[in-house]
From TrEMBL:
This is Integrase catalytic domain-containing protein. PROSITE patterns: INTEGRASE. GO terms for molecular function: nucleic acid binding. Residues 31-192 form the Integrase catalytic domain. It comes from Lygus hesperus. GO terms for biological process: DNA integration.
Amino acid sequence: MKYLRRITAACQICTEVKPRFYKMPVGTLIKATKPFERVSVDFKGPLPTNDSYPYLLTIVDEFSRFPFAYPCKDLSAASVIKCFTDLFTTFGMPAFVHSDGRGTAFLSREVTSFLYSRGTATSHSSPYNPQGNGQIETYNDTIWKAVTLALKTKGLKNTQWTAALPEALHSIRSLLCTATNCTPHERMFHHIRH
């Protein structure tokens, strides 16, 4: 382990963009008590692209801090519903979906009806108050830094970010969270590697 730390500490690209441990601010409470009880969602973008996916929809399970991310062509309700359908058919419906108050797709009748018809409640941060959805804002930045690291390591352009996304998500899901003393993967799936 010490050898790996020395190698990454000497790597210029790693020191510039590598994801760091995330320490929760004092006074922040973990709202969810089990996986998929509550998820937060937000868009990041527009991002540089050459494959017609200028946006990234990020979804984070608030209990485990396990991130999911989907490249999107636009910020529409249809794109959100498509991503939700993909995620929820695999993991089941969350009890709550929290978004910021600025995302019109999240506030749309289509998305709200989609969630309510499946028994999922919604909540929103106040408009122009991104701190109200701080965990997802932090994850958007962390995912982009991990994507940038993967791109630089492979010598790829920023416009090829969709190719680096799976590797970036894997690295984030494997990082130790100091607030929980577990990786997001361990908390989500109750599996600890020995």
